[in-house]
Design goal:
mainly alpha; elongated; about 0% strand; about 110 residues
Length: about 110
């Protein structure tokens, strides 16, 4: 009997502790949401908005295209030029071989 009373009291204490913890967590979440809603926009959102407005400008698009073209011509093309020349030599070799085989096939007919 005494043990039954002790378990009832202990379980009642657990319910009240759980209710207090749940209320504290809910209050913390509400305080966080209120604080966040009152803050100004983060600087990254402002920067994204400025960049978006700049990209919508047609002059900015042409300047960006020109800068990209200049970069490709100045930096990328000189590095790829030897690779492209080797590729063209290989293609020429394969085409010449194919025409020689075709020519020998036609002659043998």
């Amino acid at each position: 009997m005494v043990q039954d009373q002790m378990t009832e009291e202990e379980s009642g204490a657990n319910y009240s502790t759980g209710a207090i913890v749940a209320t504290a967590v809910a209050a913390g979440v509400i305080a966080f949401l209120v604080r966040r809603s009152r803050q100004q926009e983060p600087p990254t959102v402002k920067r994204v908005r400025i960049v978006k407005e700049a990209l919508e400008d047609s002059d900015a698009r042409s300047r960006t295209a020109a800068a990209t073209r200049d970069y490709v011509l100045d930096r990328v093309l000189p590095e790829l030029k030897p690779v492209l020349l080797d590729l063209l030599r290989d293609v020429k070799k394969y085409v010449d071989d194919a025409f020689k085989r075709l020519e020998s096939t036609v002659r043998s007919m």
